[in-house]
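[INFO] parsing input record for Sensor histidine kinase
[DEBUG] input buffer:
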Amino acid sequence: MTSITSPRRVSVLVHILGWVTMSMVLLLLLPLSYRVDLPSVYWAKQIFLAILLLIIFYGNMLIFVPRILLKDKVGLYLLVVILGGVFFLGLTIYFENLSNLPELMFKAFNPDKEYVPRGRWFFGDLFVLMLYLLSVGVSTSVASVQKWQKDEALRVELDKQRIKTELSYLKAQINPHFFFNTLNNIYSLTNIDVQKAQEALLKLSRMMRYVLYENQKDETSLNKEISFINDYVELMKMRLSPKVHLNLQIEEPNEDLLIAPMLLLPFLENCFKHGVSGQKESEILIKMELMGKTLFFETRNHIFPLHPDSPEAKENGIGLVNTRRRLDLLYPNKHRIKFGKDESNNEYWVNLTISLE
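[DEBUG] output buffer:
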């Protein structure tokens, strides 16, 4: 149901109130302060001025500003304004002379004196020109603000569409990236322990349900995300050798917080991709803490060179690049991420802080 307070009706009401106020102040207030009976022709002139100002205001706002000034034709616009002022003053003078207004006004103020034609009153014409410039100036400002508002609304809408499209594209890249990495792990496991491979497939099916349903949402429960992380880590543990020491410290949230789904997965993938060796001792740290609605996430792993022919070596860090982009889009000014390589320990570390408010 249409409301009386809809933006369009409010705009019309503001215009009406504005013109009523301006007409009362500029065209009625001063004449009513005169202590004489003004001729009816004078009030006809005031109505004539009000109609002209209305035409100038909306003609300038709807035609000249959008089609000339906002098209960067400033010189032509200034010429139109000057010619319009001359035309406006000329029409006013013509109306006064046609209606014999100067003589009628003289008799109204000086009933006992004989009218003698004189030159025009400079300040009267100046006042008329000021009314014209006021109408032009206000209408130009209104048209410029409306154009800026439309451009800003369009920019915001385009930004929303761009972000939505980009996020969909990033999700489409992350899902296959995760899926093929995990399948590769299970394939390796089938050559070692078939039973563990079957258990891994069951975990993968549960994880893929999460991917299919939760990843289509903008946000998911942090509890579900942590369950997904635990499943992923358990899946990875099945193929780890005793030389890999996994330090998992994940704090369960006390309240139902929301987070973008699968946001942390690429950091975990990076740990198991680069931090596992079959010959050397290694350690992987995965740590998550909560302080109120602020999440602190940390990973740390040793760095081992990948085999040049392995699928992982052929990837170009799609997951991490996309995750940083998703963080920029979903948590602008609400996250801080630091990462680097500790040369002394040959370790790669990531520190991520996200405000989930």
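[INFO] The domain at 192-355 is CATH 3.30.565.10 (Heat Shock Protein 90).
[INFO] shutting down worker
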